[in-house]
Write a structure and sequence with these properties.
Chain lengths: ~350, ~230
């Protein structure tokens, strides 16, 4: 048992500025440690699922069922030599993977895992998430330019064009969600879905949003920034060892982040279906994230890669008008039936 | 106290990076310093309690505009020696323009006085109980909707102008017409032919259009016209 004096001492300590700082760091660790473990096992899950789709076994040698494979990969990556190309811009070359990884971690500050469980429950949470995800392009562009390699540069250019294009329709989709929720605060958005998850009334936007997240994370079938059949590995072709590892971690952390964002915006966050078992809170969110991540991998296993012009056409000529139209429709419906949420 | 320290930190980084934008030799570094400057400006907005403006600054300027800057600047092939060749010659002109602007600014600011009636306007228009996103929304979309719409129309005209000026109708480019392609059936493109043994396909019909007969080919075709396909 914890003595009462310790409890009071801790209570007093956590109210001081230093205590608040310590508490925030502890909260951040409480999010980041499971997140990094999840990233490790997401790579394992991806290999297993892809293997199942392709009638193979996948990793099954290291540890029982190959469960220690992610750690073997991580150790391998740490022990390799970091190679910096002779013509590269050293500072930016090393800055790019750090930036990618840091941004992928930074976004988690505002994610509510259960009612009131967020490190920073800010008023403009959606905008913060959107801003951080729109910064992801810098890691890629800087990596492509600093490598001083034509394949890396081509990959970076493709990625910049792609991410900027899909952000526009993602923005419009988010606006329709915000109209229904009446708040920019992520906790409020989830609370607004207590009875009806937004994926039902906004189903077309849910689909558009999910496909845009595929493009935003450079995942198949929109992985042309790293299309290995055309430009070797795209923007990270010159990277090795842990610098490559940071890109890798960043990409998978971004996948988890985007799945979380979709769960919060459309799938009712921590609410179970039909208000089932509300005490399970974070568990429901994790189930939804895992389901979406499975779809990410499923798509990768079954769809061919888009060509560059097809990708641009889909973003600008299909998703943008569709999401704009749906936004007007949503606003009109809410106004006509008097369903606008009162703030 | 902490916010004052943060203010000076962010303001100092902002000023230094703004100076680096104009002074760094590599234009890509300039754009990256510009991005750093935007970031610190956003942080200053946050300190002032304008969280909506801070986020919009990051989304619009850092997330979209600066990406395009970087995109363009990275693809430029700039000869720095050539850029700096006229430096000595143009320096006096530049200094003169700068001096004139500085004097004007000093004159204007020197005579600046806030009228007593305007003091009440300087009070913050936002109500304390509403956060500023909501307050901005009310101001822009409810109180000043027509001005906002007019601004939107001006931007629309500018956008249409830019498109009209740069749009070239490229009839020769072979763009994929996706609806057309999806509507294709096997009957449009395929023909199944029973080819008798040792007869070839030339006598039955052709699977793809024959090249139009060239004039000199027609003259030379007496001997081996059956030869090429």
């Amino acid at each position: 048992m914890i003595p009462a004096s310790l409890v009071t001492f801790l209570g007093a300590f956590f109210a001081t500025p230093a205590g608040i700082l310590v508490l925030t760091v502890l909260k951040a660790l409480a999010i980041l440690a499971p997140l990094l473990t999840a990233v490790a096992y997401l790579t394992y899950a991806e290999r297993k699922v892809l293997a199942a789709i392709q009638l193979r076994r996948g990793p099954n040698v290291v540890g029982p069922f190959g469960l220690l494979q992610p750690f073997a990969d991580a150790i391998k990556m740490l022990l390799k030599e970091t190679i910096i190309p002779a013509g590269a811009n050293r500072v930016l070359f090393l800055l790019a993977p750090m930036l990618t990884f840091a941004l992928a971690m930074l976004a988690w500050a505002v994610v509510p895992v259960a009612d009131g469980w967020a490190i920073a429950d800010i008023n403009v949470g959606v905008l913060y998430l959107f801003a951080i995800s729109s910064l992801g392009v810098y890691g890629i562009v800087i990596a492509g330019w600093a490598s001083n390699s034509k394949y890396a540069f081509l990959g970076a250019l493709r990625s910049a064009a792609q991410m900027v294009s899909y952000e526009v329709s993602m923005g419009f989709v988010l606006v329709s969600v915000l109209l229904c929720a009446g708040s920019l605060n992520l906790t409020e958005i989830v609370r607004a879905q207590q009875h009806v998850w937004f994926c039902f009334p906004l189903f077309p936007m849910f689909v558009v949003f999910f496909i845009s997240t595929l493009a935003e994370t450079n995942r198949a079938p929109f992985d042309i920034p790293e299309g290995e059949s055309e430009i070797v590995a795209g923007f990270f072709v010159e990277y090795s060892s842990m610098a490559f590892g940071l890109f890798f971690l960043g990409e998978y952390a971004n996948m988890i982040l985007m799945s979380t964002m979709t769960s919060i915006m459309f799938l009712g966050g921590w609410y179970g279906p039909f208000g089932l078992l509300p005490q399970l809170g974070p568990f429901w969110l994790i189930v939804k994230i895992c389901a979406l991540l499975f779809v990410f991998i499923w798509v990768r296993g079954t769809f061919p890669r888009y060509r560059y012009d097809q990708l641009m056409r889909l973003g600008w000529k299909v998703f943008l008008p569709a999401s704009l139209l749906w936004l007007v429709l949503t606003a009109g419906t809410l106004l006509a039936f008097g369903w606008l949420p009162r703030a | 106290m902490i916010s004052a320290v943060l203010f000076y930190v962010f303001a100092a980084i902002l000023l230094v990076s703004a100076a680096m934008v104009v002074s760094s030799r590599n234009p890509v570094h300039s754009v990256l310093f510009l991005i750093l400057a935007f970031f610190n400006a956003a942080a200053l907005f946050l300190l002032a309690g304008a969280e909506f403006l801070a986020m919009i600054l990051v989304i619009v300027y850092v997330g979209a505009v600066a990406v395009l800057f970087l995109f363009v600047v990275m693809m430029l092939d700039i000869n720095f020696a050539e850029l700096r060749s006229g430096y000595q010659r143009y320096l006096p002109v530049g200094l003169a323009v700068g001096a004139v602007l500085l004097t004007e600014l000093a004159i204007v600011l020197g005579g600046w006085k806030v009228s007593p009636e305007a003091v009440t306007l300087r009070l913050s228009p936002r109500a304390a109980e509403l956060h500023n996103t909501l307050q901005l929304g009310r101001l822009i979309y409810t109180d000043y909707i027509f001005l906002f719409q007019a601004a939107g129309l001006v931007l629309l005209v500018a956008m249409i102008g830019a498109i009209v000026l740069t749009l070239r109708d490229r009839t020769k480019s072979r763009h994929q017409n996706i609806a057309h392609q999806i509507a294709r059936t096997p009957a449009d493109t395929l023909e199944l032919v029973d080819v008798p043994s040792r007869a070839g396909v030339a006598s039955i019909g052709i699977l793809r259009p024959k090249p139009a007969p060239q004039p000199e080919q027609a003259e030379a075709s007496t001997g081996h016209a059956e030869g090429h396909h």
